[in-house]
Amino acid sequence: MYSLLLLLPLVSPLVKSAAIRSVDLAGYVLTDTGTINGGNTFPGVSRPLGMVKLGPDLYSGTDAYSGYLPNGNFTGFTMLHESGTGGAPKYGVVSQMPVLGAVQNPLSDAINDTRAAPDVTEIGYYKASLGSGTVLEMAATNKAGMFQYTFPTNGLARNVLVDVSHVLSSYRGQGLEQHFLGGSINVHNDTKAGYYYYTGNGTYDNGWNRAAPWTVHFCGYFDSPATYKTFLGADRTSANLVEYGQKTSYSSTTARLGAVFSFWKSSVTSRVGVSFVSEAQACANVKAEIPLGTSLATVRQGTRDAWNSQVLQKVTTSETNVTKLNQLYTALYFMHLLPTNKTGENPLWQSQEPYYDDIFTFWDTHRCTTPLLHILQPNYHEELIRSMIDIYRHEGYVSDARSSFFNGAVQGGSNCDNVFADAFVKGVRGKVDWEGAYAAMVKNAEVAPPNNNDPRDRTSSTKEGRGALPDWLKYGYITPTYGRSVSRAVEYSVNDFAVATVANGLGLQNDFQKYLNRSHNWRNHWNTNMTALGFSGFLGPRNANGFLAQDPLSCGGCYWADYYYQALPWEYSFNAHHDLDTIIKYSGGADTFVKRLEMTFQPGVYSGNGAFGNTIFNPGNEPSFTTPYLYNFVNRQDLAVQRSRFIAKSYYKPTPGGLPGNSDAGAMESWLLWNMIGLYPMTGQTTFLIGSPWFKDLTISLGGGGKTLSITTSGGSEDAYYVQSLKVNGEAWDKSWVSWYDVFAEGGSLDFVLGAEPKNWTTGATPPSPGSVSVDDARRMLTAMYKGSVSEL
Ligand SMILES: *[C@@H]1O[C@H](CO)[C@@H](O)[C@H](O)[C@H]1NC(C)=O
Ligand SMILES: *[C@@H]1O[C@H](CO)[C@@H](O)[C@H](O)[C@H]1NC(C)=O
Ligand SMILES: *[C@@H]1O[C@H](CO)[C@@H](O)[C@H](O)[C@H]1NC(C)=O
Ligand SMILES: *[C@@H]1O[C@H](CO)[C@@H](O)[C@H](O)[C@H]1NC(C)=O
Ligand SMILES: *[C@@H]1O[C@H](CO)[C@@H](O)[C@H](O)[C@H]1NC(C)=O
Ligand SMILES: *[C@@H]1O[C@H](CO)[C@@H](O)[C@H](O)[C@H]1NC(C)=O
Ligand SMILES: *[C@@H]1O[C@H](CO)[C@@H](O)[C@H](O)[C@H]1NC(C)=O
Ligand SMILES: *[C@@H]1O[C@H](CO)[C@@H](O)[C@H](O)[C@H]1NC(C)=O
Ligand SMILES: *[C@@H]1O[C@H](CO)[C@@H](O)[C@H](O)[C@H]1NC(C)=O
């Protein structure tokens, strides 16, 4: 049940703080959204950015990326998961599993359990009803979790199995499966509570980023008397036991190990802390966050409160359409699950800087997620930026992705550069060491990383940096010597523009010119002879002798070793977002550019995207994210609204199957949020393209000081969403874009009039295309961008 009374707008400042406390927006979050049909989201329990993600692990012969599957059997309930990732599962470690009856062999694969009823999930709470009759409820804090067992009263022995070797496996056959490499388990008497508790560690490797071995330490308490047996397996993979009895500890790098606790009460709770630093810290984490005697209800409410105050209450509306509110708050939820805040938990180096992990990946999140995080969570965003620089300082590269304290995998360019440039132009300074950030960017731009021999593409590194750099430096384009040559070339161009942007801001004029020049290199891949559907000129593969034949509507396998990664040549040919005026020119001018965009959204022209009406446009993948908004660059804002609104309403639903593809760590959800807000960020620039907001009113809190962006619409409905006119901070507006400094830096207002018919209201200057002008003009434009002197653009 949702109470609409709680959603009255917060009008009076006098009652504001009391009102905020009482607003339970968490009730609108549907935590099973995106869990099936490839969305891969995590439906278990997590605090915002929480290191612990406690939830079920299921097996049905297919990769369970978040642990969850809608079918199959439970094999464990584990403390660490990712959300909305692909490629191969990661984590699914620090496990407990209830087992009834005498446990003959705790390592037997027969230890799994069916579902007696669908799982129950909501913010801060997860409940699994097992076929055996046991009910397991879960709650979690940042670094600890709680399991509450209700065992059936059928006379069978009541056990909890702790299997240190449990991980999520991969069945794709690409050598990306995780391995258990060893660990320890110790059973202690808790003299204070009088019950047993266990501590230990497990070491694992591999997974999607082909990580080096990493270790998690754990510390698990029970609230009931028990007996126990510890066990040691014959080796790291088999189910054969060599010892099974009441020994207090095992430590092994060659064998599986764990413990079975047997209870006589029917109700048992367990509190488990984790740490990546030490066993002592794992115990300290659980004692600090879930002290002895804490109820599941308290932990659950604490998580709800954290989401309300830290995330959901940053965006408020008087809207009453529950579906829209579900979509708004659910999307906000899923974009705050990753990365995870592991500050104080970095085992690799001592530092005063924050530490963030589980970056999956900037390739996915740099367009929509990080610019929105900057707005909603300036502290978190600044900590993330600082953490990236610290990783560069200690490891030599800040990568496009990172998990379990290990860089990788890099799908395209070094897109952390775009994240840095975006923060720089929008005035993020605080405690950020910008010289350090710039050094990290130059490293990406100048020093090819050593090849890590990834079987997915052995031609260069997938761990960090820019593997295809030797060609980029030598030729100004990338030959098929390297995998993903064309899609990397367009991304490297955007990355070089990011370097140029920060160079200019730091007063490094030679570097600025050099990287601005390099940012044009995507043009060397423009093959005017590539044609499709009546259009010519697309980004194509080439070597030193010239272009290779290529169909603009095929990306071959679209995988690591192909010319294009996960998107068509047609789609990538829109993606030099710093140099759009050149793309428009190369495409044949504004009118042809509009026609080309229209063809992108035309149903039935491309047979490869059945789920999306066989459009070339693919709403489920990031290289297409910005495309529907590009009409704004030729002042056809009406078409941007038409296309983007159609996509948002057709392909996104607040249901388990309601994402058009993999959530990609919240990237999809943040695309939807921008559509609802009615703006779209051009990452790395201060430009926000104007769309059409979904709500009569929306107030976004801009991180402290009472600054807000207030958005209103009048005349709108489900069928009337074309912009008729707009006022920005009370002034009539005729441009298809606003700048960061217009509405975000100090707050502001956007007041839209909407209607059922399209209108050509954008008659003013088109959005800046700073990569398309002379060096002097680009310098002037960029300087104006981060000085906020918008009139100079
Ligand atoms: C799930 O468990 C049931 C009962 O033990 C078993 O019959 C079935 O084969 C299991 N399913 C899978 C996918 O392992
Ligand atoms: C689950 O246990 C049943 C026997 O109880 C076994 O047939 C099945 O293979 C097991 N499934 C898994 C995933 O281990
Ligand atoms: C795991 O714990 C054992 C026993 O305390 C210890 O000897 C070992 O060094 C630990 N492993 C790691 C990687 O910390
Ligand atoms: C824990 O305490 C109980 C009861 O005092 C005792 O029977 C048991 O041997 C102790 N176990 C360990 C591991 O110290
Ligand atoms: C509520 O919002 C949903 C999603 O946008 C929409 O489909 C539905 O028509 C809306 N209901 C009303 C009554 O406007
Ligand atoms: C990240 O974690 C650290 C250590 O727990 C904490 O001090 C910091 O406030 C957290 N950052 C955010 C944005 O929550
Ligand atoms: C940039 O390119 C132009 C012409 O292509 C060249 O004249 C200039 O020297 C280059 N500048 C730098 C800094 O590389
Ligand atoms: C396009 O094809 C024509 C005719 O085959 C050829 O002369 C020209 O060099 C080609 N252009 C490019 C950019 O490959
Ligand atoms: C907007 O302008 C375009 C191009 O000039 C034109 O084709 C279109 O019909 C106009 N739309 C309206 C609603 O006037």
From TrEMBL:
Residues 446-465 are annotated as: Disordered. GO terms for molecular function: carbohydrate binding; peptide-N4-(N-acetyl-beta-glucosaminyl)asparagine amidase activity. Keywords: Hydrolase, Signal. Residues 454-465 have a biased composition (Basic and acidic residues). One of its GO terms (biological process) is glycoprotein catabolic process. Coiled coil: none annotated. One of its GO terms (cellular component) is nucleus. Residues 28-275 form the Glycosyl hydrolase family 92 N-terminal domain. Residues 281-755 form the Glycosyl hydrolase family domain. PANTHER family: GLYCOSYL HYDROLASE FAMILY 92 DOMAIN-CONTAINING PROTEIN, PEPTIDE N-GLYCANASE PNGASE -RELATED. This is Glycoside hydrolase family 92.
